Amino acid sequence: ISQFFSRLTERFVNGVDVLMDTFWRIWTDLLDVLGIDASNLTHYFSPAAIANNPTRALLLIGAILLAYWFLSLFLGFFFYLLHMLFGRFFWIVRVALFTLSCVYILQKYEGDPEHAVLPLCFVVAVYFMTGPVGFYWRRNSNSSLEEKMDHLDSQIRLLNIRLSRVIENLDRGSEQ
């Protein structure tokens, strides 16, 4: 059984590596289109390079904002889609994705646990961002008070109908 799970986690880690490599290649191609050399990003972070060429700083800030925007769009759409697909069982999917992400990171940095801290913090942050403070719940909080009252009114009507059916069934059962 342990050999099965070790092979399963190994295949899972390899699959995620291929997915991350694909995303990285798309991102580097996008940076190349913007005129940023993606093979040497540390050069753009040095203070001397930014002081000598302020346009690089603007390009770097633009690339960081673009990355944040793409990441937030992707995560918002992905978890909204998962919420639409799984409905009430979305929390199970969130826990499963969180667990698989932690397994991936711990398996990837098995020999060097100090390097696993930052990715684990990122995974925990994403887990909490997709919770009740996430995109889906914020989207529903913008509805007006009248819509919320109408929704509560319809819920009360449904509960009254169900209660009357239960009472009718109890009355029929006691008469027999």
Automatic annotation (TrEMBL):
Coiled coil: none annotated. The chain crosses the membrane at residues 57-82, 89-109, 115-137. One of its GO terms (cellular component) is mitochondrion. Keywords: Membrane, Transmembrane, Transmembrane helix. The keyword tRNA-binding does not apply. InterPro entries: BRI3BP. Pfam families: BRI3BP. This is BRI3B protein. It comes from Pachyramphus minor. The gene is Bri3bp.
